[in-house]
Request: fold
Amino acid sequence: MSGRGLEDLIEQNETDLGFLSAYGGGETPEELHQLISHLITGDMEISIVDEGVQFTLKNPQLPLVKSDLNRRGFLNGKLDVEGVEVVITDFGPEQRRFIERLAEFIQNE
Reply:
């Protein structure tokens, strides 16, 4: 019985999992900033931080709940009466929907 060694499995996973980047993850803070800057609108503010991109929107009536900030790709989320602040660490479908939802809200306000 021939088994596969740990090195073989690690090597396979390094080459076979590249498609996952299409779902977000692995971007540098600078790449995240570029991706997100095309989506922001109105009073949305972004800045590069060590972990990713700091996203801030001051508005007391945002259509968000705290669980919106507890998903993969978000860090240090804070939602209060002043607005939302969160670090975006990955850019995938959830982060895109989050920003697009807030942009739509601002446009319809």
